[in-house]
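WARN retry 2 of 3 for item q-0093 after timeout on previous attempt; input resubmitted unchanged.
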Amino acid sequence: MSSYTPDTDLWLERSHLDGMVLGAVSYGKCIFFILTIQATIALTHKPRGETKGAEYHWMLLSYVCITFILATISFGGNAKFAEMIWIDLRDAPGGPAAIIDNEVKYWINMMALSCYYIMQWIMQMLLLHRCFMVWHRQNYIVVPMTTVFLAMVAMSILNLAESSGTTSYAFDTQLAYVSLQVGLTVIYTILVSGRLLAVQKRMKAIPGKEQDDIYGTVITMVVASATMYCALEVIFIFSFALYSNVSNLVFLTISHVQGISQLLIIIRVCRGRAVEKERQASYSPTPIAFKHSWDSAGTNPESSNEVPLTPYDNTSAGPTRTSTEKSVVKPASTEET
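OK item q-0093 returned
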């Protein structure tokens, strides 16, 4: 079989094809596509008694739909380009390796890249929104984070402009764009986690561990989602800077992994809120039954009245009880002792 091996850059072709396969797995096989459906269901489900946060839910639902459409267009464009490499244009001069080297010359590949860029902009905007909300839109947080984001957008547009009509990507611009993207994600993770850790430390002084656990859970989600994405980005940066074909293995998967991380957070938060709302809606005070109730004169009346299990008057500064108020409820059985 070795006599049939073409005299070409096989590693380049293999890495590009394997990267396409990995992108297909991260997009459709029980990951991005399925999580998009789950997030849509979670966002459209309204627990009983919930009336607040409808606008925010619609914003997240729009985010899920737009990113899914962009990811689908990008994946479809890359799939078609893969067909062109190994089927439609396989007899082109230089073979598949030459087509891969000159991939920016084909409009369908540039369309797919543009959709991925826009998808990444939207995902980074969601991160900025969360960061600004956690920091209460402080100017010393909003201004530098927005500046980094705008620089990232400018680098992506510049990369598309410089690559148009050439045979390869603008190396320096592409590297600057990816570096800014990773930097923005890392800064977001540090700012949000640091803020939540500070609040968690103050909350430890309050009795009860439930709030402490909530902050710890949110920090874990933020760090875990950023870790998956940043790990692939760092691999891409080093391999791309070293002109290694390893960059082809992870390039198409990066945006999908970032989208998966955001969808996991959305699903977990929505389901957590739904469970909490259902629990609160179904809660009702349980009466406690005693045999006797005594009035202020020390007599034992024939009957007793039910009263709420709220010994405090909300309109006063402390507990108040009138002499005729019954602190117990109707007995469950008249033969109790």
